[in-house]
Specification:
The chain is of the alpha/beta class. It has helices spanning 43-54, 72-80, 103-116, 128-159, 162-165, 173-181, 191-228, 240-250, 259-266, 290-306, 308-319, 324-344; strands at residues 10-16, 20-27, 33-40, 60-65, 85-88, 271-272, 282-283. The mean pLDDT is 89.
Length: 347
């Protein structure tokens, strides 16, 4: 597919917000803005947009910003109605000419950007994939909050009065949490000790509760992954969290047009950095889905530790003069290629 102009006569760009959505109709042949409409971000508003589009003649496509956030409801409504929906990222401020900013202007810009693209992506799938996304977000929140509570417990134990600190001496974090959660107040203690004990107990119980919550989310994630793509779990270094992260980013067959595009999405594709007399240089790619990049990093470290073939590659790479970090970057690129081929062409 080379351009939307070969397929449709109008493109409807939509600038999405929490309470309202603004749509602008752009003629595919000339790029001229034809009409615009602002509706509420409700089921009634979505129906108004579809009725507004039905008044237009010819084939159409929708270019929506934030299909997974503010535009999620509209995207579901349009897909259920059989409409063609194109996913767009939020614009960067520098792309707005002369700093001009308004909802109609952003809607027109979205439609014209879709027309200018040689390839475009479809929105991520709903259903099981969206359930995985929700569970991953909830687990990530529980893990991060639990980690913060653990650090606070450790810091309070270090600064606690000696009579209290002696109970934790020689203990690691898990044992500290169990000891702190079981603390009881003693009437003979002074205000500082009583307050420290109360806070320690609260933080420790919070950390333990969040750990249980994260474990429950991980079990639910594993169940869904086994239903969707159990073959992912057979890959070396791929556990339920890594598999779920990969599935959420990839979504469905055909959404990502090539393994090079998938590598760019993961942030492991090398970026050319040649200029003048400096040629053949590349720099680290800091773009893409950072959660997905982190998942590939986990796979790379696991294979370096447990897979003989990967360790042999690392030895050859070191002998060629690469640093460990450069070797891991290369490994992540190879892992992205293998995962993409498995996802698009399962055995």
């Amino acid at each position: 597919m080379t351009s939307l102009t070969e397929l449709v006569e109008v493109v409807i760009g939509v600038d999405t917000h929490v309470d309202t959505h603004t749509a602008a109709v752009v003629h595919a042949g000339t790029g001229a803005a034809v009409a615009e409409l602002t509706v509420e971000a409700t089921a009634v508003g979505y129906a108004e947009l579809v009725a507004f589009a039905d008044e237009l003649s010819g084939l159409r496509a929708w270019a929506i910003e934030g299909t997974g956030i503010h535009g999620a409801g509209l995207t579901r409504h349009l897909e259920q109605a059989g409409e063609v929906v194109i996913e767009l990222d939020r614009p960067e401020r520098v792309q707005r000419r002369n700093g001009a900013k308004s909802d109609p202007l952003d809607a027109v810009r979205a439609a014209r950007e879709a027309l200018a693209r040689p390839r475009f992506g479809t929105p991520r799938a709903a259903g099981d994939r969206q359930a995985l996304s929700v569970l991953l977000a909830a687990r990530r929140s529980a893990v991060e909050s639990g980690t913060d509570a653990q650090r606070q417990v450790f810091s309070l134990v270090i600064a606690a009065p000696e009579s209290l600190r002696s109970r934790f001496r020689g203990q690691k974090i898990p044992a500290m949490l169990r000891t702190a959660a079981a603390l009881r107040l003693h009437p003979s203690w002074d205000l500082e000790t009583r307050t420290t004990v109360t806070v320690l107990r609260t933080l420790a119980r919070r950390a333990l509760s969040l750990a249980d919550e994260a474990g429950a989310h991980e079990k639910a994630i594993l169940t869904i992954v086994r239903t969707m793509r159990p073959d992912l779990l057979e890959e070396k270094g791929v556990g339920p969290i890594v598999a779920a992260t990969v599935l959420c980013a990839w979504s469905h067959p055909g959404r990502i047009h090539s393994e090079a595009a998938f590598a760019m999405l993961t942030g492991v594709a090398p970026i050319p950095a040649s200029s003048g007399k400096t040629t053949g240089r590349h720099r680290l790619n800091r773009h893409g889905d950072r959660q997905l990049n982190r998942a590939l990093h986990v796979v790379a470290l696991s294979r370096l530790r447990y897979e003989e073939r990967t360790r042999a590659y690392a030895d050859r790479s070191t002998a060629q003069g690469r640093s460990r970090r450069e070797t891991i970057r290369c490994l992540k690129r190879y892992i992205a290629r293998d995962l993409y081929r498995l996802l698009e062409h399962p055995a």
